[in-house]
Every structure is written in C-alpha cells, then in structure tokens.
Amino acid sequence: MNISLVIPVYNEHDSLAENLARILSISDLAQVDLTQVIIVDDGSEDSSIKSLDGLRSKDPRVEIISFTRNFGKESAIFAGLSHCRGDAAIVMDSDLQHPPELIGAMVAAWMEGYDVVEACKTGDDGNSKLRHWLTGLFYALFARMSKMDLRGKTDFKLLDRQVIDAYCALPERKRFFRGLISWFGFPTKQLPFEVPLRNAGKSKWSLPTLFHLGLVAITSFSSAMLHLVSIAAAICFTLSVIFASISLIQKLVGVAVSGFTTINILVLLVGSIIMFSLGQIGIYIEHLFDETKKRPIYVINQKKSHITSKKQQ
Questions:
Q1: Which end of the chain has fewer CB atoms at under 10 Å, N or C?
Q2: What residue segments make up the domains of the chain, in order of their start?
Q3: What's the maximum distance between 2 C-alpha atoms anywhere in the chain?
C-alpha cells in the first residue's frame, strides 16, 4: 500500500531539512511505504525550499510545490492532497510538533479498516494562557453552532484514498480542513499525543490569523450568526411592547409630555419591524449560503456500499 506524505511549510528554513530527514528516517524504520513526500511551500519569504536541495537530490520521493505567494495553510493542504498518488495520505506539520513516531501507528490503524486516523492533542502544548483561553472559546462556540466537537483535534491526519477524493471534489473555496474531514463522517480512529516543544523557530499563527481562521470555520459550518438578527428582533419587539405600555400609562395618567407617547410608540414599532425584516432576509441568505457552497447532500462510503450503476443496469 503506497502512502503519500503532505507537509505544508512556511518560513521553516532553520529546521526544515533536519526535521524532514528525521521524519523520513522514522517512517522508514517503522517500515511505512512512503512513495511520495510532497512539500508545499506556502510562499515562504526565506530560503526554505533551497534548504531541501541536498535531500531532494538524494531522495527521489521528495516533490515540491511552491506557491507564488502566501495563500494559507488550508490552500497548501488542498494542493498537496490534489497532487498525491498514494492509497492514503498523511498530512502533518514540518516542525515535529506532530510526532513522526505516530506515523507507524496511523498506518496500522488504517490497515485495520479506518478511513481517517487523526492525532489528537492531550495536555499542554506550550502556548500562552490567553491563547489557550481563546482556543477553548472557539471550540466551545464551534461545537455549539455546528454540532461538531473538534477539541484536541489537529491537522495531523491519515486519509484513505476515498476520503482524499471526496475532499478534493468539494467545490467550495473557503475550506476548514479539520471541520470538513469530521463533517464527512468516515470511520475514524483517534490517537492521542502530547505536543513536543519546538526545536527551532516559533509558531507562524498570530492571534489575528487565528481569529480569521476561526471566523471562517464557524461561518462555513453554521448559519447561526445570521439568526442573531432574528433574536435581536424578538428582544427589541418585547422591549417595545413594555415601553409602549409604559408610555400609554403615562399618557392616561397625564404625566407624559405632549406628543412623546406617539413618537415613542412609532419609533419602537418601526424599529421592531425593521429588525424582524432583517431577520427574515437572514433566513433567505442562509439558503443562498448553503446552495452557494455546493457541498454534497450525502457522501457514500465506497468500501461498505454494494450498488450497481445505471450504466450497468
């Protein structure tokens, strides 16, 4: 069984060649048949790819895809999976925070029949308390809105060929790799691991970048934010009824300023109608949002299905 390895890199010159050599060495010791190692350079501003010249000349398995500029990790993963030829592919980072020692266990789990084998983080990963808190908040919101729990999950995954084909066939451009693989629902096995410290360099994920990725992830898998307007409309209507009642009572007892009651009721009523209308528009935008993504209505597990095509009939 041929295995492809997909490694997105961005400004990893300091340790890329050494780390990649270790990944290949550990994979060979585990007797994993790596027939293709795809390095996707996500528009690095340093000499990351040049640092691989020596290794690439010695190992014909190493292939390089170089972007014209920085398109983001999601694009790099998609490019690597689109070009892999293996019966399965392993996606992992190059900084060794995805331990290559797990590759053998991932392949073994795949041979057991699992279509997706994902490594899940346990314990502390060395990030700041603020980043831990923000990450936890994101996963809590994502789970609440999308009904998918991604806590601890990483991009370090092994994907069977049918999962790769299904992922690459998706027409949407804004992608969230972890979410989409979970959304498919293929048989999955999780392997826990503790994140080792970096041996060189630092994380390329700034808080603004992580915030943008989180926003893309939530809006790609949930339309709940569109319904916030409807919730606000309901709250606004309830408040308008309360304040309108107070204004009428003040008018009846003769303590209201002349004309204030009429203006107050009109403003509250018109505001509620506008908010309600925006909520209804949001519902229709939700339908457009789902149709525009063109995500498949269902995904067939080819290994478990026994069907006859219409042509054969």
A1: C
A2: 3-221, 225-293
A3: 94
